[in-house]
Amino acid sequence: MIIDLNMLFTQLKIKHPQLSVEQYLDLTTVSISGIRLLPRCSLEISPDFLYLCESQHPLSPDSLPEHLLLLCVCRPGQLPVPYPGVIWMETDLEWAVIFNTLQEIYIMFQNWDRSMHDSLIQNLGLNHLIQISEPLLKNPVLIYDLSLKILAHSTAYVAADKIFPYAIQQGHLTSDMVQQFQNEKIFDTLTETGIYISADKRSERYNEIIKLIYINGKPVGYCVLVLVNPSNMKYMRRMFENFFESVQIGLEKMMQSIKTEGFMYEYLLIDLLENDSPEISIVKDRLAYIDLPFASDFYLCALNLTSPGSITIPFLLHQIQQSIPESRVFEYQGQILILIFEQKRLDPFHYMEQFPLIYHTLLYEIHQHNISGGVSRLFHQITELKAAYREAKAALSFLEEESSSRTDLIFFEQIALKFLCRLDTTGSGYSITKHEKLNRILADDAKNHTCCVQILDTYLKTNCQATETARLLHMHRNNVIYHIRKMEARYYLQLDDPEERLKLSLAFYAKNNNGYETISRPAD
């Protein structure tokens, strides 16, 4: 932290308003390493400190080293002839009181600096940095990402300001506010100079100091100081610069922490995406180190940023991870992948309706940052991740090629029929919308008031796992096996045949998407 003379004397005037200071140098350009009493020997003097003495000190100004910082205290009416480099202070206070007050102020700034360093070391976050800085800044602070979503803010509420309370309530700036900033050319100024300082008096909002935050040469956000209690502008700017330095370090540490946390599980998940036949035992061993289950209720969501420059990727990864704790979020081939697991709140039969309600924060990010998203079907083993990724990508492809909206969320389940139809390019083979055996099961269900179709559909969706089918349908496992065996015998189903399962699955997709053509039940 840079502690300059202007910071010291601004605080000194607050504590002792009656003081009169005469100086002949720019106090904002002079920083110090401490405050000392002027010794009687000039050999013991260092140019890095501010020295204080009374006017009757035995050392004459001519004998002092060049560039010495000296504050000389004298009684009112006893101001001597000005001397270059000497700051004169007229006061009835004892010079010892002035010295002790300056020491207290200097220690206050040092403690602030130390507190910010401790906060950064302990990774306590941006809000903690703001919290410990508010008593000194005495003005509210807002920290935004590039998309103008709030990352942290002061707890002080500025009711009279047009932007501050609404931004905190909504968590971001509205398009109208952004347009106002653009009209005032604030973003242009920040791009050119890195800092914007408003100086005009406004009725709708306070003036502010805004700095563009750079990390590794790239802009990542904005730091705003709302000047509710503006005093010495040079003083406020120096205080803000000192605070801003810690914010920049804090954001860099946050981004690095996100990367580090993601590395361990990211390597494994990418291996699963790129390996067709992973060794199960090795996968299970690696899962033990990253706190991920091998078997669970999994969904995979793939996101495309239609406007990549609108937000920094690490921030978006962090925000999604925070909003969906039961997930692992990582970047892969230019997309953001979200692996959601152990999600008991989603009913496998109604998850498309439930997903936007449960993950409304994710939907907000999608609309806020111009993102398109595709969601796979439910899968039950982590080794099925690659197949799930193909489904999520297929949903994304459909959304971006055929939908009028490119910033939305679509489920593979919704477009599976059309997607699978694309795969049959030969024009020959099987009719997806007709399946004679399924017709017979439907007809028997209607006649006998049974639910064999639901059992078979669920059984296929769970990759023919009887235990999982029983759990989803609230049945006993043996009961599921009984019904499956009975259907295999009665309708000549060969569920161990991949082609038979595919045909049935396609027919079910057609049925569930209102594209199924019912045929009259053939004669027995």
Automatic annotation (TrEMBL):
<dbReference type="InterPro" id="IPR042070">
    <property type="entry name" value="PucR_C-HTH_sf"/>
</dbReference>
<dbReference type="InterPro" id="IPR041522">
    <property type="entry name" value="CdaR_GGDEF"/>
</dbReference>
<comment type="similarity">
    <text>Belongs to the CdaR family.</text>
</comment>
<dbReference type="InterPro" id="IPR051448">
    <property type="entry name" value="CdaR-like_regulators"/>
</dbReference>
<dbReference type="Pfam" id="PF17853">
    <property type="entry name" value="GGDEF_2"/>
</dbReference>
<dbReference type="InterPro" id="IPR025736">
    <property type="entry name" value="PucR_C-HTH_dom"/>
</dbReference>
<feature type="domain" description="PucR C-terminal helix-turn-helix">
    <location>
        <begin position="453"/>
        <end position="509"/>
    </location>
</feature>
<feature type="domain" description="CdaR GGDEF-like">
    <location>
        <begin position="279"/>
        <end position="397"/>
    </location>
</feature>
<dbReference type="Pfam" id="PF13556">
    <property type="entry name" value="HTH_30"/>
</dbReference>
<protein>
    <submittedName>
        <fullName>Helix-turn-helix domain-containing protein</fullName>
    </submittedName>
</protein>
